[in-house]
Write a structure and sequence with these properties.
Elements (H helix, E strand, L loop, with lengths): L1 H28 L11 E2 L2 E2 L2 E10 L4 E7 L6 E6 L6 E2 L6 E8 L4 E5 L1 H4 L8 E11 L17 E3 L10 E12 L4 E4 L3 E3 L3 E7 L8 E3 L8 E3 L2 E7 L7 E9 L2 E10 L5 E3 L8 H11 L23 E5 L4 E4 L2 E5 L3 E5 L4 E3 L4 E9 L3 E7 L4 E8 L1 E2 L6 E2 L4 E4 L3 E8 L2 E3 L1 H5 L12
Parallel strand pairs: 5-11, 13-19, 20-22
Antiparallel strand pairs: 1-2, 1-6, 3-4, 3-11, 4-10, 7-8, 7-9, 9-11, 12-14, 14-17, 15-18, 16-17, 18-19, 21-24, 22-23, 24-32, 25-31, 26-27, 26-30, 27-28, 28-32, 29-31, 32-33
Amino acid sequence: MKRFFLWIIGVALGVVVLLGAVMAVSYSFTGEGARPAADVQFGGQALEVNGSCWQVPLVGGVLDRVFAEPDTLTVQKLGTLYDAHPALALPDWATYTTLTIETDVGSLVFAGSAGQYEDFLFPANGSYKATMTVWRLPNDLLSTQFDGGTNGAIHKNWGQEHPARPTGWYRFSFRFTLQASANVELSAERVEQGGIVGVAITGMAGDTAPTLETDLGSVSCTRSPSGWRAYIPAAYNASAGAHEIRITVNGETISRTLTVLPKDFGTAEVEAEPAPTEAANTEFRNNIWPLYELPVREKLWSGGFICPAENYLILLDFGQVKVTNGQQGSRSNSTKLYTIPGDPARAPADGVVVFAGNLALTGNTVVIDHGCGLRSYLYGLQTLSVSRNATVQKGQAVGALGEEMTMDFKLGSKSVNPWLLFQTSGGAFWRENE
């Protein structure tokens, strides 16, 4: 029995020695190369590590070896960057990032995560200093819970990952000069009457909205993730030929040329209608015309629009010349549909109701603002089921249809071809998520 106990003790000591030897070998052969590569870029330039702390698992994650480098006063100089939103590129292993950016006099302009930085535009050109920490943390472990200790120390592994992986962070300190200049792109340089041309303004610093001038209509810019966006209407009666587009950004004026192409929309036979009363015209002007000049709101639509009526026949289409008793009249800026009474009148896209009421000239009327100056005007409904300031979603019923409905889609005060919106065609859908 005594020999048996001595044998058990000997085996246990052997196991301890063996484990110690394995750990010693694992410790000695686990170097800084076991950490993930610090492959981080800002503005297309590789950043140099300025401080780090990593716990690298040993013996299948039983323990960790810590590699730590204290921060230094060294600040990497990136030189001059020419993009108002220098790109931040992170390695695949990054799970959490903190970034602070200050002016050269120490005024804070940004503090947040990498995701929040995606929507950030610098307030002005100038010199900046940035500090960034890029973490690799297991799920459910907060950066405030991580403590790597001192260089070379052995810590027990967190045990939150199987198999265990390195946990820690790299820190970067860098400075740069921003010298951004605006870049203007058009979705197309030629557009048919009735179409829409998208405008993307990127590469600029500051929060002041650019101004856009053109004889095609009143156009306002709204923010987009990468800068600013705007939409130019080529109305059904826009003059064919070249039109100058002037965009002013931070005192700099950029010119582009847009060519409008004529389009034959055809003709339609219509019956003579009695002239509206002056009171009806005045009521319409007082209620509807001010909507053309409403301040633009952010873009609310996503993807194609839908026709407000699901079942219909076209009585008079957008752009068609009206023919009455053989005589040609004016061109139509709207589309009149024969519809099924009682069917729902649907919101063509997400938006906000800016008018809902009964007018002598157009009957029950709903106007929906879809953002960026684009609004839908639905006339002649049987009943209304929404009120002013209501938020509506694409396809939502805003009322019931009667025998006829007229729809007019305008950018500002200029009517555009609704069928292009229904077909997800043209500049209204260009670079939609940028």
